[in-house]
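Antibiotic biosynthesis monooxygenase: structure tokens wanted.
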Amino acid sequence: MSYVAVAEVRVKPEHMDAACAAVLGIVPQTRAEPGCETFLIHRAADGSPRLFLYERWRDAAAFETHHAQEYTRAVYRRYETWLAEPPIITFLDDLADQEPA
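Answer:
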């Protein structure tokens, strides 16, 4: 079973372009990580300064390894002053992997 996380990242409006560039800058390395199955980034369609990340990893260890990478940590350090509030991270279970009731 994969390890899936969705993050909503609320950015201060004046930092939105820089925040987008920073996270887009790590997409190639992230997708090349051995445990990465899917790594997608979306911007809110309503124009609000929000990013949404959909991440699917082989397992929790792969997710944790990604977050320990220097390029990921560098983005987090830059986000410290750019974020309007802490990200909201939701972990998901795939219903197809569950037994029927």
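Residues 70-82 form the longest helix (13 residues). Strands lie at 3-10, 36-43, 50-57, 88-92.

Cheers.
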